[in-house]
Amino acid sequence: MDAYDSGSDVSREAEAEEAAAREPQAPPAPEAVPDASPVPSGAPAPEPRTGVAALSPRYQIGAALALAVVAVAVCVHLGMVFLHVAPSNTVTKTHGEAIDDWIYPEFEQNWKLFAPNPLQQNIAVQVRAQIRTADGGSRTTGWYDLSAQDGRAIDGNLVPSHTQQNELRRAWDFFTASHDSDNRAVGERGSLSETYLRRIVVLRLERGGANGADGVVERVQIRSRTLNVRPPEWTTEKVSSQPVFRVLPWWSVLPGEAEGDAK
Questions:
Q1: Which residues pair with 216 in a beta bridge?
Q2: Would you call 222 helix, strand, or coil by DSSP?
Q3: Is the pLDDT of residue 144 over 60?
Q4: Both ends of the chain: CA-CA distance in Å?
Q5: The whole model's pTM is what?
Q6: What is the pLDDT of residues 151-162, one digit of tens each?
Q7: What is the mean pLDDT of residues 205-212?
Q8: Is 130:250 a contact under the CB 8 Å cutoff?
Q9: 197 burial type by CB count under 10 A (0-12 exposed, 13-18 middle, 19+ buried)
Q10: Measured between alpha carbons, how far is 19 from 11 in angstroms, rounded to an integer?
Q11: pLDDT, tens digit, for every residue of 92-113?
Q12: What is the rounded CA–CA span in Å between residue 247 and residue 29?
């Protein structure tokens, strides 16, 4: 009985092993490989490079050179356009042909910068007067440079007045715009400009004490002194260094004009 039972047990074990061998075996789980560069917990993942930074060094150098060429071309073009529309100067006189070759015909401009041209002259307004003295005599003063007086008042003054800066200059511009080269009035505003200019210079003479203690300003004569601004030393431009005078006739002073009562 025992021998039979033992044989049965051996037979069952053999059948169990054969059944297990016939069943498919699951593949073994892969072994975990440790990460060579672990990312710290909470740190953002690096973003991929874009644009020029994504290029290889060789292409980055090529892109930088291309951008440099474009930047230089833009600067040269802007400089050429500026010189084309700017008033005549030393650079345009020396390189005018090269500037025109660049501009025409594709980039032609129909406007000008600083129109009219900036003033390249110093214009001073001067006046002298004929004074009737208290004893009935008469004397003529020397020339007073009213523009120089305004210049001294403005120099070093942080807030110069509008009168000091513009009154005399605008009055002279008003006169020259309404008179021809022979000092003849042109248009209806000619006489008005004469009255305005004469009143200003008479007031200046009275305030400056040109008439003396008891003297009276009877007549005034105005002139302008124009002197060209000296060009810089590095230019070959030549201008006259001699002053040019424009002398107006003697004007009689109306009664009360020094006080601003003349009509």
A1: 132
A2: strand
A3: yes
A4: 161
A5: 0.58
A6: 999 998 888 888
A7: 86
A8: yes
A9: buried
A10: 13
A11: 888 888 998 888 877 877 777 6
A12: 114
Count other C-beta atoms under 10 Å from residue 87's C-beta.
13
Once rounded to an integer, what is the mean pLDDT over residues 147-172?
90
Whole-angstrom Cα distance, residue 158 to residue 155?
Answer: 8
Two structure tokens written together for 51: 């644009």
In whole angstroms, what is the distance from residue 137 CA to residue 215 CA? 9
pLDDT tens digits, 2-50: 544 555 555 666 666 666 556 555 556 556 555 555 555 556 666 777 7
**Which tokens sit at 144?**
């007073």
Q: Convert the pLDDT of each residue in 64-100 to its tens digit.
A: 899 999 999 999 999 999 988 887 778 888 888 899 8
Q: Which tokens go with 163? A: 């009168």
Sign of the C-alpha dihedral computed for residues 165, 169, 174 and 177 taken in this order: negative
Q: For residue 10, what are the CA distances in angstroms to 1, 4, 6, 17? A: 14, 10, 6, 11
DSSP category for residue 199: H
Pinpoint the alpha helices (H) of the chain.
2-22, 57-85, 90-103, 146-154, 162, 168-177, 190-207
Cβ partners under 8 Å of residue 263, min gap 6: none
CA distance 158 to 215: 36
